[in-house]
Amino acid sequence: MGKKLGNLIKSARANAGFTQDQLAKKVNGVTASDIGRYERGEAEPTVQVVKDIAKACGVTQKSLLDAMPKSSARTSSTSKPGSSSSSSSSAAKSTMRVTATEKRLVELYRAADSDTRKRALAILRGNDDAGGVLPDVNDVLSGLGDILIDVLKKK
Q1: What are residue 135's phi and psi, to 5 degrees?
Q2: Which carries the bigger pLDDT value, residue 107 or residue 70?
Q3: Nearest CA-CA partner of 24 in 8, 38, 7
């Protein structure tokens, strides 16, 4: 089945800092054991589930949809009967354009260690290290700047 897709799902989940159970709670109608079967390539998720996983993990839908076997992508499509759109054309429409800054943030995030990733995600979600809500955007930007400086120093 979709071992390549399974590996990508597992990687996206781990990079987002989720357990299988945590990811399953973010994807409607999916259990932790379903996530495990997808990751092992024992089951194929529907196109909608793949999109929901991508959204929950913060990866592009295209990166996961492109890894789906072509037969699964066609049979899992949610297009209406008589519709001329195929899943491959809908997958092409689901790409996201990112700025150079956003691309650099992703590169830095991927290069960071686990603790740095967790700190960055906490700041982006509006939480400080103590778990409290940050009072304003300047604190968030300052925190991100500190993390990026830490990452660059480690390189």
Answers
A1: -75, -30
A2: 107
A3: 38
Is 103 strand, coil or helix? helix
29 three-class SS: coil
Alpha-helical segments (H) within the chain:
3-15, 20-26, 32-40, 47-57, 61-65, 70-75, 87-93, 100-111, 114-124, 137-154
- Tell me the per-residue pLDDT of 41-82, one tens digit each, with 9 for 90 and over: 899 999 999 999 999 999 988 888 888 876 554 444 333 333
Q: How far is the C-alpha of 43 from the C-alpha of 53, rounded, in Å?
A: 15
Which of 21, 51, 15 shows the shortest CA–CA distance to 36? 21
Residue 129 pLDDT exceeds 60: no
Domains and CATH numbers, the chain: 3-93 (1.10.260.40), 100-154 (no CATH)
DSSP states of 54-69 as a string?
HHHHT--HHHHHTTS-
Cα first-last separation, the chain: 38
What's the predicted TM-score (pTM) here? Answer: 0.47
Cα distance between residue 128 and residue 120, in whole Å? 10
